[in-house]
Each structure stands twice: as structure tokens, then as C-alpha cells.
Design a protein that fits this description.
Layout: H1 2-28, H2 34-37, H3 48-60, H4 66-76, H5 81-110, H6 112-135, H7 156-186, H8 235-252, H9 255-261, H10 265-272, E1 274-275, H11 291-316, H12 324-355, E2 366-369, H13 374-398, H14 404-433, H15 451-476, H16 480-489
Parallel strand pairs: 1-2
GO molecular function: transmembrane transporter activity
InterPro entries: MFS_trans_sf, POT_fam, PTR2_symporter_CS
Family: Belongs to the major facilitator superfamily. Proton-dependent oligopeptide transporter (POT/PTR) (TC 2.A.17) family. Belongs to the major facilitator superfamily. Phosphate:H(+) symporter (TC 2.A.1.9) family.
Length: 508
């Protein structure tokens, strides 16, 4: 009896100790203790300067080099204008395609932070390698005078060093570009905020649902996982694929405007042959005329968002916003106008060059101000402001949130395809127009070539692309922003002037 009492007392003591331990553990994990552990919040506005600076520096290592890179290849590596431009097309194509690979790796494996980090390292290494080609004399062909002697071309090792620097910078862009925008957006992502949630997800035809239908019970394990993932997909995977396929026709309409925007060599040669002086002592470098595209883009965005839309909303008595597809179409139109104006200006410039006896002197300066090139750069900037931003917003609103990095890379993928097609167009124009001993439209001698015809060809192609865009936009039907506005208003009749953001309040 005494032994049993001792055992009961011991059991009671052990139970008491377990209860006390459980109570202490529960207290340490109570909701009141969590704020004391998480003393420092992460993300938010404090991270944005670092994200923006990193993105900007990567752009300097790619976009910032393109204008003057044409002169570098033509003079130091002694390439013709067609060869130099094609090499830049290939570089730009790789730079714009690899972000899609980076987006896949970030979304599926490493995460955005690591991919941005690795991308920054590769971009830095590529810039250093390109710098070395300019600093080390033996890294490029020896300098010589073409008018006096036959100059040696670059050796395979020198070409390899040059192309390697391009590839490293392209790999860096593949890590930085698709993730920075989405990574920055994550800093302000608050799931508990009802205004932060996606209003509506897009569901489509039932021409792909069969991929997620369980045909046989043996296709699924007891835990619900597919035995063969290639034969059976989840509903989410199928819907993601359908979302991607559905936007592809409209995505393809942005390729032509990217072809136009990638024509960097010809405006550079135009500016180099014209009077670039603002005053007697101040001269704008030929490679800096591309800044007018950025200036026009920035000014237009400010005017559009802060002046034009508020004024239109005040006149209409309700918020007025252009939808993403409307902006994409307007951008294509302005791009067509930019190519048309470029051809007109070049036609006038070439005529003056011939009158001044500069037909065989491409280095001569025409008595015509290079400021005449500003309108075509401004039109390109406005075109990019409408189309590029409209495309990016369109992909973000139409593709699922799980594909946010891929959505960010879609525009870059279009530019990659555009650069390859631009190379095909340029090579064909060069080969077809120099037959029978004729001078090529895109000759290295800008005064003997017919660059205006090349610009007008692009304008005609862009005009047909605008018609193609209208057909694709009509076939696409309503998009998320349209349906979101309809849900907010609770009305079946939906006007055409759509509110581009479903989060913007509407009048009753």
C-alpha cells in the first residue's frame, strides 16, 4: 500500500512537471510574445533606394553602352555598320531573353533575392571585361589608318573576349531585370489589406482543362499527388498555361515597336554627320541624342498622370483612365509616326549632303542642325511610354500572381525576339538592295546609302502591325481590368473608357 502511494505521488509529480513545462512553452509561443521576438520589420520603403540603384546600374552596363558601342565596333574593331548593328542586335536579344530564364529560376528554385545577387555579380564582371578590351591594347586590333594601309581585323581571341563581356552582362541582366520589379513590389505586399488582393482571376475555355482531369484512379497516389506529373497537372498549372497562351497574340504585337526602338546605329550616324552645336563652345555628343527619348518618356508620363488625366476626369465628371490595351495601340501608332518622321528628316539631310559635295565623305558635317532629330526621338519616347508600360501592366493584371516574375520578363522576351527579327530585316535589306553593284540602303557611307527608305519600310510594317493589333485586341475580349470595373460598379453595362486600376474609387 505504501509502495502504491509512493508511485501515485511520483506520477502526480511528473504530470505536474509536464503541465508546467507545457504552460511555459505555450506562454513563450503566445501571440503576445511574437512582437517581442520580431523587433525589426523588414522590407518597405527603406529598401527601395537599393533596388532602384541596383536596377539603374545594371541598365548603365547594357543600355548605356549601346549608343557609343557602334562607333567602338566600327572604329576599333573595324566592322561595317551592318555587321556592328547585327552584333548589337544579338547582344540585345540575349540581354532581353535571359530575363525569362532568370524569372523561371527565381520563381521555381532560388527566389528573387539570390537571383538578383548573382545577376549583379555577372553584370559587374561583364563590365570589367569590356573595360579591359579598351584598356589593354592587345585586347583589340592594332590602330591603323585605312587610307594608307590595309588594317588587320580582330583575331578570334579578341572577338571571344569582346563577346564574352557581352554575354556576362546579358546573364547579369537575366538575373536583375525580371526580379527587381517584382521584388520591389513585394516590399509593400500586405495580404491582410483587402485592397491589395487581386480582384478577379481569369479563367478560360475548358482547348486545355482535360490536362487536369483524372482519367484513372491509378494516376493519383493516396496523398493526392500525381504518379506522373507529365500526364496529370494541377488545375492551377493548367490555368497558368492558359493565361500565358491567351496573352501571346497581343504580346506578339509589341515586337514591331521593339524593332523600331532597337535601331540605335542609324540615328547615331545621322547625328554624327550633322551640326550638333548648341552654342559655339557647347556640342552634344552624337551618342547622347538618345537621351531625348528618355526625357520625352519621363515628361510625358508626368503630364499624362498629373495633368491630362485629372483634366479629362474633371471635364467628364468621373475618373478617366486609358486601359492597358488602348495605351498599347497608341504606342504602336506613335512608333509608326516616329519612323515616318525619321525617313523625312533623313531624306532632307541626305539631299543637303549631296548639294554640299559630301556624297563620298561620310565624315563630313552637313550644314543642318542635329536638333532636327529631336522630334523622332521624342516620338519614340512617347511610343515607349504608352506601349511598354501598357504591356507590363497588361501582363501583370492578366497573368496569375504566381507568374509575377514571368510577367515582368514578357516585355523583355518580346525585345529579344524583336532584336533577332531586326537583324534578319537589316541583313535582307542589305543583301537585296546592293545587288547588281548598287549601293546598299544601309551602307556604311551614310550619304551614299538610302536610310530614309529603310525607315519608311519600318513605318509601313508598323502600320500593318497596328491593324494586326486591332484584330488581336478585339479577339481577346474583356480583360481583368474591365471585369474588375464591372464588379465594382455592379452594372452589366460597361463603358469603354475603362479605369486601368480596379483599386481606384469610382463615383456612385
Amino acid at each position: 500500500m505504501e509502495k502504491e502511494m509512493m508511485e501515485l505521488s511520483s506520477d502526480h509529480h511528473m504530470t505536474k512537471m509536464e503541465e508546467d513545462h507545457h504552460h511555459q512553452l505555450s506562454s513563450s509561443l503566445s501571440p503576445m510574445a511574437v512582437p517581442r521576438i520580431m523587433t525589426r520589420s523588414k522590407g518597405g520603403l527603406v529598401t527601395m533606394p537599393f533596388i532602384i540603384a541596383n536596377e539603374s546600374l545594371e541598365k548603365v552596363a547594357s543600355y548605356g553602352l549601346l549608343p557609343n558601342m557602334t562607333f567602338y565596333l566600327m572604329k576599333d574593331y573595324r566592322m561595317g555598320v551592318t555587321t556592328a548593328q547585327n552584333l548589337l542586335f544579338y547582344w540585345s536579344s540575349a540581354t532581353n531573353f535571359l530575363p525569362l530564364v532568370g524569372a523561371f529560376i527565381a520563381d521555381s528554385y532560388l527566389g528573387r533575392f539570390l537571383v538578383i545577387g548573382f545577376g549583379s555579380i555577372f553584370s559587374f564582371l561583364g563590365a570589367v571585361l569590356l573595360w579591359l578590351t579598351a584598356m589593354i591594347p592587345k585586347a583589340r586590333p592594332s590602330p591603323c589608318d585605312l587610307s594608307v594601309q590595309a588594317c588587320k581585323s580582330a583575331t578570334p581571341a579578341q572577338y571571344t573576349l569582346l563577346v564574352s563581356s557581352f554575354m556576362l552582362m546579358s546573364i547579369g541582366a537575366g538575373g536583375v531585370r525580371p526580379c527587381s520589379l517584382a521584388f520591389g513590389a513585394n516590399q509593400f505586399d500586405k495580404p491582410d489589406n483587402p485592397n491589395n488582393k487581386r480582384v478577379l482571376e481569369t479563367f478560360f475555355n475548358w482547348f486545355l482543362n482535360k490536362a487536369c482531369i483524372i482519367k484513372c484512379p491509378e494516376d493519383v497516389k493516396q496523398d493526392g499527388v500525381a504518379v506522373d506529373p507529365w500526364n496529370l497537372r494541377t488545375v492551377e498549372q493548367v490555368e497558368d498555361l492558359k493565361s500565358l497562351i491567351r496573352v501571346m497574340p497581343l504580346w506578339s504585337t509589341g515586337i514591331m515597336i521593339s524593332i523600331n526602338l532597337s535601331q540605335s546605329s542609324f540615328p547615331l550616324l545621322q547625328a554624327n554627320s550633322m551640326n550638333r552645336h548648341i552654342t559655339k563652345s557647347i556640342e552634344i555628343p552624337a551618342g547622347s541624342f538618345g537621351m531625348f527619348t528618355i526625357i520625352a518618356l519621363t515628361i510625358w508620363l508626368v503630364l499624362y498622370d498629373r495633368a491630362i488625366l485629372p483634366l479629362a476626369s474633371r471635364i467628364r465628371g468621373k475618373p478617366v483612365r486609358l486601359g492597358t490595351r488602348e495605351r498599347m495601340g497608341i504606342g504602336i501608332f506613335f512608333s509608326c509616326m516616329a519612323m515616318l518622321i525619321s525617313g523625312i528628316i533623313e531624306h532632307i539631310r541626305r539631299g543637303k549632303a549631296i548639294k554640299q559635295g559630301l556624297l563620298n565623305n561620310p565624315e563630313g558635317v552637313v550644314a543642318m542642325s542635329a536638333m532636327w532629330l529631336i522630334p523622332q526621338h521624342c516620338l519614340n519616347g512617347i511610343a515607349e511610354a504608352f506601349n511598354a508600360i501598357g504591356q507590363t501592366e497588361f501582363y501583370y493584371s492578366e497573368l496569375p500572381k504566381s507568374m509575377s516574375s514571368i510577367a515582368a520578363a514578357m516585355f523583355g522576351l518580346g525585345m529579344a525576339v524583336a532584336n533577332l527579327l531586326a537583324s534578319v530585316i537589316l541583313s535582307n535589306v542589305d543583301n537585296l538592295t546592293k545587288r547588281e553593284g548598287k549601293e546598299s540602303w544601309v551602307s556604311s557611307n551614310i550619304n551614299r546609302g538610302r536610310y530614309e527608305n529603310y525607315y519608311w519600310l519600318l513605318a509601313i510594317m508598323t502600320g500593318f502591325n497596328l491593324l494586326y493589333f486591332m484584330v488581336c485586341s478585339w479577339a481577346y475580349g474583356p480583360c481583368v481590368e474591365n471585369m474588375s470595373k464591372k464588379m465594382v460598379e455592379g452594372d452589366g453595362d460597361m463603358p469603354q473608357e475603362n479605369v486601368s486600376s480596379p483599386l481606384r474609387p469610382l463615383p456612385a
